[in-house]
Design a protein that fits this description.
This protein is mainly alpha-helical. The protein has five helices and two strands, in the order ααββααα. α4 packs antiparallel against α5.
């Protein structure tokens, strides 16, 4: 498939595909007789995996490390697994943080559910922030 079709099917722009090739995240494509890139459909699975890694926040240097190990093939499975296990732990920690944030949001939204369900503390006004006027700080000795 040509780069335009790959871009359409993968959701990546042609520019991003060429960039990923250049930095080593994607293998270089075969070229047809006219010199245009010609991709095998199996590349879509790899691109989908890369997208999952990106979505979960894997740094590009780790994605590049994984791609390089993958390219080396058999014998790198242990290193690839360890890299993914470390990333999984970071993802789990991030999910836990997001769950805590979601709980705070749900609690706040529930406070706005209706007058009868509202807690008096939900209507409390925030304390006024007072700023010192400009120039009110004591000058430091130099």
């Amino acid at each position: 498939m040509k780069i335009g079709e790959l871009a359409e099917r993968s959701g990546l722009s042609a520019h991003t595909i060429r960039y990923y090739e250049r930095i080593g995240l994607l293998p270089f494509a075969d070229r047809d007789r006219s010199g245009q890139r010609d991709y095998d459909a199996s590349i879509l699975i790899w691109i989908e995996f890369l997208d999952r890694l990106k979505t979960t926040g894997m740094p590009i240097r780790d994605m590049l490390r994984y791609a390089a190990l993958r390219e080396r093939g058999v014998g790198t499975e242990v290193e690839r697994r360890e890299l993914l296990e470390r990333h999984r732990e970071r993802v789990r920690a991030r999910v836990a943080d997001l769950q805590a944030c979601l709980l705070v949001l749900d609690t706040k939204i529930a406070g706005y559910a209706g007058e009868r369900q509202r807690m008096p503390k939900d209507d409390a006004t925030a304390p006024e922030r007072r700023r010192k006027p400009a120039g009110a700080r004591k000058a430091r000795a130099r």
